[in-house]
Every structure is written in C-alpha cells, then in structure tokens.
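Why do we care about 3D structure at all? Because function follows from shape, and shape follows, mostly, from sequence. That is the central idea of this module. The next example makes it concrete: a single protein chain, its amino acid sequence, and then its structure expressed as tokens.
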Amino acid sequence: MSWEEQFEPEQSEPKLPPDLGSLTEVFRVQLMACLEECSAGRGGLFSDREHIVSEESEFRSWPEAARLRELAFALQTILSQSGESDALCDQFLDLCSIHGENDPGEPRLARAFLNEIEGGS
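And the structure:
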C-alpha cells in the first residue's frame, strides 16, 4: 500500500471497527428487549433503585438492565474517543438521567422510546 493510499481521506461514511460494530449491535438488541419488558410494567431499566426495594415493592432487581446501562456508558466512552456517537445510546443515557417531579415513569418512557425507534409517534 502506498503512502497516498494510507493517508488519503475516504469519501464514504466512517465505518466502525468490526468489534465495535458488534458491540453496538448487542447494545441495540438488548435495548429493544429491555424496552419491551419495561413498557409492559417492569421497573429498573432507566435507574437502579435497589436502595428503595422492599418485599412488597413491584420493583425487582434487574441485572440485564444494569448491564445495559454499563454497556451504554462503555459504548459512549469508546465512541467519543474516536469522535463518534450513537444516537440510541446517547438517548438511552439521557433517559437514565431523568429523575424527580417531572419523571413520567419508566413504562411510559419505555413506550415512548420504543415508538420513536420504530418510527411511531
């Protein structure tokens, strides 16, 4: 490969390295599965609320959701190091930061996010 070929800017969109592409795909598949479950009423996708769980609480520990949040933070960090971003990952992490009086509730957030991803309203 010549020097010019090595340093010539590419005309096409930047491509993710194969491992990063598969990591992004794993995130998307897990996100959709967790959003479906959360929209059906399971809590704990956007926030780890183990500190308020009681025996009577409908909230139960959700390890898959915790791993999804960890994966999203890792993916965002890796992508930002190369100047890239992933809109779904960024939006998911934004939704994870919603707390307080204006929090519409996780099932509602999950349904709205699913509708947006699927192109609905």
